[in-house]
Design goal:
By secondary structure, the protein is an all-alpha fold. The chain has one domain. Helices cover 77% and strands 0% of the residues. It has 8 helices and no strands. The radius of gyration is 17 Å and the shape is elongated. The N and C termini lie far apart (50 Å).
Length: 201
């Protein structure tokens, strides 16, 4: 991407990579898989089982979280040895990764359960393209147009990138508690929507 990136640029890209892994898994692949399952009647089948709907979502969440973890470890380790970006990983990396992963998975479940399958698939493609090209993950928010900056103040992607970046390079980047609160709200909204739909008769 760059012929001769500086230290700050390399660090920005390196700390953005884990967020990309989470977004592609939780907000793109998961909803596509869930939309396909909905078309095949999987959700209707789940409703017939005498089990708690939260248990279904929790089991799936553990599976998807397990899928994201190797990508995070591989991306971070390879970047450390190949590009030496200058990580300063803090103790918060574990809760931050857990929060970001749960938010991605929760929101992915939420919109894929609430929307029609075809619409959810289309939105997943929009998110994939938008996250790579128009989200402040691998570049600062200030480089985007003003209206898009305002939009990202509402959406969770920028907050995920910020808290992940801060936990991986704590001596270079900083964030505020508002970003954590916003992610918790999005996470609860996503899981709440999914459980509500599953509980509908």
């Amino acid at each position: 991407m760059f012929s001769d990136p500086g230290g700050k640029t390399t660090l920005f890209l390196a700390t953005g990579a884990p967020t990309i892994v989470l977004i592609m898994t939780g907000l793109v692949i998961l909803p596509m898989q869930n939309a396909t399952a909905k078309i095949e009647g999987y959700n209707d089948f789940i409703r017939t089982l005498p089990i708690n709907r939260f248990a279904v979502i929790a089991a799936d969440t553990i599976m998807w979280f397990s899928i994201t973890l190797p990508g995070f470890i591989i991306a971070t380790t390879c970047t450390h040895f190949m590009f030496k970006p200058g990580y300063a990983i803090s103790w918060s990396i574990v809760p931050v990764y857990l929060l970001a992963a749960l938010t991605c998975i929760g929101v992915g479940y939420g919109y894929s359960f609430v929307m029609d399958a075809e619409l959810a698939m289309a939105l997943s493609q929009v998110i994939a393209f938008g996250a790579l090209m128009f989200s402040p993950i691998n570049f600062p928010l200030e480089r985007l147009p003003r209206w898009l900056q305002v939009l990202h103040k509402i959406l969770p992607i920028d907050s995920m990138a910020q808290i992940m970046r801060t936990s991986m390079a704590s001596t270079t980047f900083a964030t505020n508690s508002g970003e954590y609160i916003k992610l918790i709200i999005w996470c609860l909204a996503g899981y709440g929507s999914a459980i509500y739909v599953l509980n509908k008769k």
